[in-house]
Design brief:
alpha+beta, 6-stranded antiparallel sheet, 9 helices, 32 strands, 20% helix, binds beta-D-glucopyranuronic acid
Length: 566
């Protein structure tokens, strides 16, 4: 599988340092919904009359008419290529579009892709001068990933469209097709490069203007004398440049080690406590696209609350998002888009998890996620799924296949699955650490966060005793509607949410074997219409527009009292 080479920012956050020629294809497009699915038959790839839309962003909130549109839709754009494009290779690169994407350049089919949350590319023929790009997106709610069969029960809003950047990228043969960097905090590192043909490859590692290592091969095992290790306190990044003469790519890498022992997760040899959040990519109007300015605010807010970690619940986040995690020092649990199964699969988990096409899609999207993000220092572990019905042999077989694949693609990172089946779960034996979601005091034991937190502590400690593995509490939280106050603290008030979080953190921070706490969620986010929710999922400690609730102040204090290393 060919990994996607990313353009990474230079040390000034947000400034792109492309090492290939490229043309940005974001901007205004022409858009047309295709509810009758006639576009392909009628040749819309050659052109159609549409209305304006902006790429990249979900289509839904750009026009109230499209808000609840799920299905096929078309995008069209004319673009100008100033270079003699014919004497090299050109790709159209999507950093995330979906769920099903088909693209045509100048009426010629370029390729199709399944999955909304990874980068993919199609080789294309473009000509110097004007060209046309047509894209068909299909987000019909079906057994996609995440699973959307039953819309009202879906875990978050089912946005659609070309939701992340698009560009045209050029290279000359032989070009670099894959790059893997692994390291440890003592300076040992290895580089493995794949190239499209025969080429002399050179590699270099530098910091700022200082070149610290140069090698004359794309495959290197070596050691850098006394590197600055990467950590949340000091996220030291190095520029790794790999060049074939005709092509060059840049990755920003770090020197760090991750190890799981029975009593915790170790970063650079020290036992680290993960303090943070489950997040979402969700923002008004832009939908599933997170503007850089919002990400910047989020990361400052997370730092302000003394957090050092988050999970990319429930799909891999954008390159912009994860670049900031590398840059600002967050420990990321990177989650594959295998989620949304609970309400559906519990009726017949055997049939659900034995479906070979479901496993095939899950494996493909997990593999893409790892290929794209495997060089990031921030990514310390992979979650292969959120809340699968991990209580039967069929679901266990499904999850074990995913874990086996993750380990074969990347033996350096621990693997987990996120369970809400707690003591009943049958798949912890193949996890490196255990991850649990718990809502005692909200969905169960409503109104009693104190006993709820005690019960969760007992479950976490029992799992740790039984399996001899650390336990990360990946979700706990309560809805708090901003501006709703109550004395005494009752459910849905800001006070109840703050109290719930306080009870959980107090119980769990010193629980035997608990290696971290992720509050659900960083910010309120959009969900399908359902009597369970008041317009949004209100479990954010910040509102959807990033204003603090009472819980934010409380959490700042609580996380501030937990030492990062213990
Ligand atoms: C958990 C899911 C999460 C939901 C949360 C909730 O993992 O995606 O948003 O419940 O109900 O089960 O708020």
């Amino acid at each position: 599988m060919t990994s996607v080479i990313k353009f990474k920012p230079d040390p000034n956050i947000g400034i792109m340092k492309p090492l290939r020629d490229w043309i940005d294809l974001s901007g205004y497009y022409s858009f047309k919904a295709d509810p009758d699915q006639v576009g392909e038959k009628e040749g819309w790839y050659d052109g159609f009359e549409g209305s304006p839309i902006y790429v990249h962003s979900s289509w839904n909130e750009q026009n109230p008419v499209w808000d609840l549109y799920f299905g096929k839709a078309w995008y069209l754009k004319k673009f100008y290529v100033p270079l003699p494009a014919e004497d090299g290779v050109a790709w159209i690169v999507f950093e995330g579009a979906g769920y099903l994407t088909k693209a045509w350049i100048n009426g010629k089919f370029a390729g199709e892709h399944k999955g909304s949350f990874s980068s993919f590319r199609f080789k294309v023929d473009v000509k110097q001068g004007w060209n046309a790009l047509a894209v068909e997106i299909d987000n019909t709610p079906t057994r996609t990933l995440p699973v959307w069969d039953e819309m009202p029960n879906a875990l978050f809003f089912h946005y659609g469209g070309i939701q992340r950047p698009v560009r045209l990228e050029f290279a000359k043969e032989p070009y670099i097709t894959d790059l893997t960097f692994t390291s440890s905090q003592d300076g040992r590192f290895s580089i493995a490069t794949k190239v499209s043909g025969n080429a002399d490859v050179t590699v270099s590692l530098s910091r700022g203007n200082r070149v610290l290592y140069e090698g004359k091969s794309g495959n290197v095992d070596d050691r850098l004398a006394s590197p600055e290790p990467w950590s949340p306190e000091n996220p030291a990044l190095y520029d790794l440049t790999v060049s074939t003469g005709s092509d060059a790519v840049l990755e920003r890498v770090g020197f760090r080690s991750v190890e799981v022992k029975a009593d915790g997760i170790y970063l650079n040899g020290k036992r680290v406590f993960l303090k943070g959040f489950g997040r979402h990519e969700d923002f008004p109007v832009t939908g599933k696209y997170m503007p850089g300015s919002v990400l910047i605010r989020d990361f400052y807010l997370m730092k302000e609350l003394n957090a050092n970690s988050f999970r990319t619940s429930h799909y891999p986040y954008s390159n912009d998002h994860l670049d900031l995690a590398d840059q600002m020092g967050f420990l990321v649990i990177l989650e594959a888009p295998v989620a949304g199964m609970a309400s559906y699969a519990h009726r017949n988990p055997d049939a659900f998890f034995s479906d070979p096409s479901f496993l095939k899609d899950a494996k493909a999207q997990l593999a893409e996620m790892i290929a794209e993000h495997k060089n990031r220092p921030s990514v310390i572990a992979y979650s292969v799924a959120n809340e699968p019905e991990s209580v039967t042999q069929a679901s266990k077989a499904f999850l074990d296949e995913l874990k086996k694949l993750a380990r074969s693609l990347d033996p350096t990172r621990p693997v987990t699955h996120v369970s809400y089946r707690l003591l009943e779960d049958v798949d912890y034996d193949t996890d490196d650490f255990i991850s649990i979601n718990s809502y005692n005091g909200w969905y169960s034991m409503p109104g009693d966060p104190h006993q709820g937190a005690i019960k969760t502590r007992q479950v976490a400690e029992e799992l740790h005793r039984k399996y001899g593995k650390p336990v990360l509490v990946t979700e706990f939280g309560a809805e708090g509607i901003a501006g709703i106050h109550s004395d005494p603290p009752v459910m849905w008030s800001e006070e109840y949410q703050a109290l719930f979080i306080e009870e959980y953190v107090t119980q769990l921070k010193s629980a035997d074997g608990v290696c971290g706490l992720h509050v659900w969620n960083f910010a309120d986010f959009r969900i399908p219409q359902n009597v369970k929710w008041a317009l949004l999922n209100r479990k954010g400690v910040f509102t959807r527009d990033r204003q603090p609730k009472l819980a934010a102040q409380k959490l700042k204090q609580l996380y501030g009292e937990i030492p990062a290393y213990y």
